[in-house]
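Let us begin with a simple case.
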Amino acid sequence: MKFALLLVILFMADGYMQTSSPRSEPSEDEPRRQITIYNTYGYLDGNEWVIPTRVWVNKKRRWMQGFVTWMLDLTSDYSDEQINIFRSRLRDIVADSKSRRTVTFRLPGDPDEHIFRVMDSKGEFPRTDRNGLILGELRIPVDLVNRIFEENNRTDGWIELEATSGRYVGSNHIQLIPPEGLSVISDIDDTVKITEIPAGGRIVVRNTFFKEYSAAPIMADMYAQWEDAAFHYVSGSPWQLFNPLGDFLFGEKAGFPVGSLHMKSARKNPLTISSWRDLLEFITNENLTFEQKIDQISTIFEHFPDRQFIMVGDSGERDPEVYGTIRERYPDQVKRIYIRDVINDRELNPDRLAGMEIIPAPTIYRPGQITEEDILDEYSYSE
């Protein structure tokens, strides 16, 4: 109910300008004008590397972070720690997306300083849309990449992209994946990160917005064994959580291999209830996630028809059905499927996991099976 009350407050706040917050202020060290280059990959197409690209031009609205957390503080009994975690998760949700911006890209180390732009499916070079986004692909000559690698003694297959749009800047490292080899498709929630989706919306909200992320036990060690693999993380979480998820997954605390991220698009206006409903629904709606994952994973398989794939998910949503569908479509490419069983399907519904390798995990109970208080106090991954 507390989170629902916050949604009402946000809806009524449209037109509000700026306020102070009794909690700690957002870091002034963080750049306000940014271009986010989302984690992606490159694949070979003839004499070019093709990089599926999603970029977001935005300006941080620190006053909005302060306002939202201040209002939450007035209407709830959340602790200082929970409020500050919530503030950090708001960073991209409440940011100001900048439309009609031209974004150019360059490769550090390129002696000729070539300029590139994202090309869309129509062969045009778009500016940012009303959500501050540009979607499309970058095409970079193989010869140019080889030259940069040679002149900079790079052998790891990663290149750096720098993006510029006036005073807005950003960068990221992109893995150029060869046509043959091993790739890993991984879910995120309840596969590598504890979210407890089967336990219901209240617990999902707590674990997503008010609690430090926790890594699923043993999974990072398991992924580390696939030393030469490329990794693709396909999640039902919205793109607005890209930065906190990426910082957690690929940081020292969780230690998962860096890879591309594939997430869901949600409405971005923080002053409407519908946007906040999207954020929760996109994490918990199994049907939306099913179609999204099928499409995104199929695209990866189509880009790498000669690679072998391992797929890792959990039983709490529809990962077994998603991966089973992918195996039917690409039987020669799917090497193995692992399912982290968080709802005890290995005993209750073993046919669902047939032909898949089971990773046993503590059971997350669904609402109605046991009281929500018992889930919070005894059966969840809470501290």
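The second case is a distinct protein. As before, the sequence precedes its structure tokens.
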Amino acid sequence: MSTNSIIIAPSILSADFSKLQDEVDSIEKFSDWLQVDVMDGHFVPNLSFGAPVAKWMKTDLLIDIHLMVANPADRVDEFIAMGAKNITFHAEVVEGTDRTALIQKIRDAGATAGIAINPETPLSAVDDVVGDIDLLLVMSVHPGFGGQSFITDVLDKVRAAHAAHPDLMIQMDGGVDDKTAPDCIAAGANNLVSGSYIFGAEDREEAIAALRG
């Protein structure tokens, strides 16, 4: 896969919230998407900000919402209202026909729809909707906290997903840095979320370029 087609999505979760707009501005010219992690303290054991805070960010980047929440269907409208263009929910909390309905709700609202799987969740868990989604997010850490180490085993799921669905956008999130990004890309991922590596770098342009390879 050509690195020219790789989407880089800095995760605002790792930014300095006391100067949020400055942090967004620092990566704006070099990135493609901006990911906002939404955590409810239930599906994951941590809390993050929601739409009331995120709506104050000024950016031309595509806003990518990662809903790590127990009730994603109840949260779609607020993030559409603040400009979200992709909304991803977790396979572990939405099942059966509710998944199809949620994907349709997101699309009807004007965004693309993604589904995420945790490191321990098999790829087969999304067989029912993999043909309907715009994005598959393969978590390479356990969701809820930044700065975790990359779980290499999940690359097998990325390879399998890419082989079965070569046109599907595959996003990876967790422990993505200049060391792990080449493995992600080689496995078939074409959308890389990175938080600590980017926002912890003195030269963020250089850090983002390193992820692209």
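The two ends are 11 Å apart (CA to CA). The first strand starts at residue 7 and ends at 10.
Keep these points in mind for the review questions at the end of the chapter.
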